[in-house]
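Minutes, project check-in

Agenda point 3 was the complex the collaborators sent over. CS summarized: two entities, 1475 residues total, and the question is how they sit relative to each other. Sequences were read into the notes so everyone works from the same version.
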Amino acid sequence: MSIENQIPRRHFLRDTAAGLGNIALLSMLADEASASGQKPTLSFKPKVKRVIQIFACGGVSHIDTFDHKPELIRADGKECNKAFDTFFDNPGRLMKSPFTWEPNKQTGHLISSLFPHLRDVAHEITWLHSMKAKSANHTPATFQMNSGFTINGFPCMGAWLSYGLGSLNRDLPTFVVLPDPRGLPAGGAINWTSGFLPATHQGTAFQTKGAAVNNLFPPDSVNARERKAGLALLGDLNDGFHSKHPDESGITARIKAYELAARMQVSIPQAVDIESEPAHIKAMYGLDRPETAGFGRNCLLARRLAEKGVRFVQLYHGGAFGSPRINWDAHEGIVENHVGQAASMDQPVTALLKDLKQRGMLDDTLVVWTTEFGRTPITQGIGATGRDHHPFAYTCWMAGAGLKPGLRYGETDELGYDSVTSPVSVYDFHATVLRLLGIDHTKLTFYHNGIRRRLTDVHGHVIDGILA
Amino acid sequence: MFVWAMRQRMKSTVTCAAGKHVAGVGLAVGAFALALMAHSASTSLQTPPSKLQAILTKCATCHNPDQRAGGLDLTSKKTALEHGRALVPGNVDASAIAQQVVHGAMPPGNPLSESDRDIVVEWIKSGAAYPTITRPSKPLNPKSWAFKPLVLPAVPSANRLGTKNPIDAFILSGLQAKGLKPAAEASRNTLIRRVTIDVTGLPPSPADVASFLADTKPGAYERLVDRLLASPQYGERYGRFWLDIARFGESHGYEYDNLRDNAWPYRDYVVRAFNDDVPYDRFLTEQLAGDTSSPAVPAATGFLVGGPMDEAGKAAAGLQVRLRAREEELEDMIGTVAQTCIGLTVNCARCHDHKFDPIPQVDYFQMKAALTGVAPGERPLPSTQPPSAGDNKSATERIKRTVQQLATLSTSAPPSVTKKLTIEPLLRWTFDGSHGDAATSVGGMLAGGARIEAGKLTLPDTKSVYKSAPIPKRLTEKTLETWVTLDRLEQRGGSAFTVQTLNGVTFDGIVFGERVPNRWMAGSDGFARTQDVVASDEIAADVIPVQLVVTYAANGDVTLYRNGKLIGGPYRPAAVPQGFDPNGWQAVFGLRHDGSNTYLQGTIDEARLYDRALTAAEVEATYRTPPAGLLLEPTFALGSDSDQKKLAAAWKSLNDMLAARARNQARTVTADRVYAATSTKAEPTFLLARGDVNAPKQEVFAGAVSSIGTLPALFNIPSNATDSDRRKALAAWITDKRNPLTARVMVNRIWQWHFGTGIVSTPNDFGNTGEPPSNPKLLDWLASTFQTDNRYGKAWSIKKMHRLILTSQTYRQASTSSAAAKKVDADNRLLWRFSPRRVEAEVIRDSMLMTAGNLNTTMGGPSFRPFTVSSYGSKFYALVDRDTPEFNRRSIYRMTVHSARNPLLEALDCPDPSSKTPKRNVSTTPTQALEMMNDAFVLRQARILAERVRTSAGTDAKKQCITAVGLTLCRKPSQNELTRADTFLKTNTLEMYCWALLNSGEFAYVD
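CS then shared the predicted structure for the full assembly.
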């Protein structure tokens, strides 16, 4: 099977190298080493061409944010005779949400006081209330949300899209990660690894300080005039080697890579130049307030990068699991944790949706908002006020072209304990994202150690019910 | 029929990615259904015989001679009775079969109908007359070519080119069949660069190239190959490939990503095994069960547990979380063992029968039963024999004479040569009673055999210690300096200078050989401020005094120097540096600290204590002010030129002799502990339906893959066998010569390492989804040759296979392309030339160090840590880059953590350590170009290379060009290149010229 995929591909490389010349070589640069894979031709008409993902680290409580459960008010303080798959195995009693709930004006969707801004645009969002995770442990669950697998080393969604769709703008990385300014998520770069896919498809984590990309520029000690001469000399050396091996595509591609690198040195600083944005836009994202400035900056940056053709931008909201908590992991108390987390996210995310919409970008951009699991309707420990991890039910959402806006898909039971109506697996979620990009998730594969690997493993069904 | 069978199968199992082999599966299922329906001649039973036969056929799906589920074979009465309790004809109550069936336990998950149960009961009651059972009726996938027994194929008589190497005959016959011709032999200059980088991962030096080009005697190339295979760098190169497959990482991954401080002994084991040409069957056996062998090699089992480990999950209070974390860990282990050793993806059969290969789910769980006692953890290493002195008497005499000569020269120097101390210590122990000697001014106590005489502190035995009185000063930031000679280099754990609290609980000291033999370290209480950063062995301190300095800065940085030069750090430990209150502390010599029981034996000429951290320049300056009467190095200016020359010559000779002595003693660094497999009680293993920890089915016993016809899958060991017996049995099964996969898989890897692509291009997958061999007979010839003793060498010798391949004409071909050949075989699978290829990330980094003359070739020992660590629930690693001997070691000695990878190496496709990587990707990206152009490491090597070139070639541009091109590209520059260099260097620096060479495509390729 793999040989059948390889030979035509190699012929393509050979033919372009011999005939079509540099333009074709340039366009195949990023794909050069993917001979062992099968590049999908798009199976469907794509609804969107780029994705912005917001990842809320730590496990956002669905029943305190987007999935209102009046039954919990009645049952508050009562025992819950259900089996839980928690991390700390210290079941307490049922606890009502401590927040107040108000409806979105258009759809009536009740959203808690944690998200007053997002409530106003809830009718633009497609809600998935019946998510189910495979693990009650942060990192495996986060890995699954990112890569489909609960273990280290599998390519994440951004890497798959880079591999499957390539770049929209070769002067910028295809897959950019914007870590929370408060710190990297647990596992750091494992979360945006290309796994066994070629290194090309690795997420590029933009630095919060200095140049956005590592080694984008030489240090100041390198004289610019001399570097220019050095590059010219390098060109001559490479031409000499190339003339010895005129039809070696890798050697040709290497020469082009240096030219592309030079173009990135121009385009990346332009893309990240937030200062060029007008004041009212900056204020809209909350750059003028300390609690929203950090994440607001990343949301604005995400819009700029998407606008300039980055295929996949992933924003992390929340860092690792240290103390004090800098993510949504509300073991100790749902109020003290979620209030602060939501305050830093609500306005910037809402601004991103509004800004994309006002620029018409929501017509070909998909925004997805994810977390790794929900939180228990019971407290963690009797008499406590925090909630433990809960993989049986949680809420994620999407917004953008190809979706039914305002739709609330799937339901949890009256306690928010289980996803009972139309449960959605992480595989289904990924399959649907790929579908919106025009990809059949069963056809985006890469051969590795015996298996044509997929983002959706051997599972996944497109959630037809949310597609417009 | 076909469609029906397909649907049934899809329902009952989880499908595994779409593929064309589903058709094969469907047919096999059809065959199974037919077998079930088959009627056969009757017996004298009351029930219709076909019915009973169908039931027993079902039982025999698992209870057959190969699988023997539950240790039971139900294909004949004879074998059924062998089990004892399973079948007792005439006695239903005593027959386990009846009990299992009646209670619905068997067949698992699919109990017999009421009427079928009655049939079984009646059958046993009436004496259990056995119908004929045909098996296997299991719906297995087709076996790929790789399962077929290994037979030595005849060598084709393609001798027209007069080649003697059978490899060439196979390749030529393949080429001839397609009307292709091999390329001519590559130029000798190309060959030496190709084979040197290939075998050692480093380019040849200009001297290597020159001597090879000058060697016109027959067999020059073969001698070169032998020399390279014998060089220790070979093990570092091929060990790295093995570590890729073994997914070797030095942190746990997942949420916490904690460091594995003691994983490196496995890396050293692998390097050494390649260098020693450990037979491959033993190499595998040690990695699976080395802790049980004699002598024990526990470090080898680091192989089993090299994968990521979910510490949070394994320690979770929630039972489900814990169970799943352990299942994932075992899948990683089983997958690694099966893919590495036999090229089968057994891990794909964890939740269902393998979709494409004849690997039923039970095979996965049999392997799980074989490995289920393995837990990752730290275990002590057996203490190794102290290296035999191996001292050659005359060599020792020569060393002594040279030291004597140095002493004479040093005393003849005018007193002005050794400068006065310019940096004032807080305290100075000169042990000569002179003014300011702390031994007098502070005072102290000698114990054991310790004595102060002739201006020295002598510590002759394992009870000797000198402790100062309490010191009435405050000490926070500090520098310890000591001038020490050791009695023996084999001693371990004593201190040449310690400061401690009076109770000995808190201390910092200059400690020798405690954690790593022969190496200095900054010792501290509970190793709170200790890291194994010194990269080279002490080889001289038993012959001459050496200066050791450790500085402790206010920010926590700890830095080590020897004889004025940086040897380790700076590193910043997590623990805050200790402060000592006035009169609450003292100096100690000999004993590591109070509370320890290890002493240093040797002499201290002088010790100096500073109340601040000296800079590198200051340490250099203190080295220039040695204690009176010490040997002087050539950098000290003696009075006369002739003495100066004699001094330099004597030092060179001494250093050469000490290096030779160290080589002869062949010390290998060993650790006390290793992260490896720890053995626990092997609990019973149950097949898990859909791989779900909550759905256990029948018990499964230790075994392996059932589809190798000649080799039974179940191990011949008791069902309650110990963990070590299970693993030994697994190793025996894998290395059994009747197992055709083991040898095929390994020779294919060796082939791939040399040619870039294997004969099978999917090295970890010899099943149906893998690619069939491009030259099956060659593969089998290599595998058979590998397995046996023969004229090429011993059975399972890896170096024998390297030699065969490297000396073939096939390997020696030029890389010149041919349009005609490309039309027939664009991928060069038939090898009508040598395919040029980009070298691996490590080769690029190591070659830069080597060409710049900056490579530290010290082998083995703890990895260098190119990062600082911070903790926020999880560990975070901030990468650092330094020009220190430690950091200038080969890349294989770089500590690889999962969550922070080196951007330069990563851009060059250095793999994610979590991923089993049998074959490196080769990608070319703008990010890679940015790293190569701008990374501080690359820029620094360019600068150092330029210095080297200038030193050797002087200021003439053309000479500089010849030297620089020779070092980097291993050839002479062309006339054009000389002219270009001349022009370039008129207006630009040599450093920029070297930068361009290091960035060039030619530097990054072998052709």
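Noted in discussion: Chain B touches chain A through 111 residues (CB under 8 Å).
Follow-up: revisit at the next meeting once the mutant set is ready.
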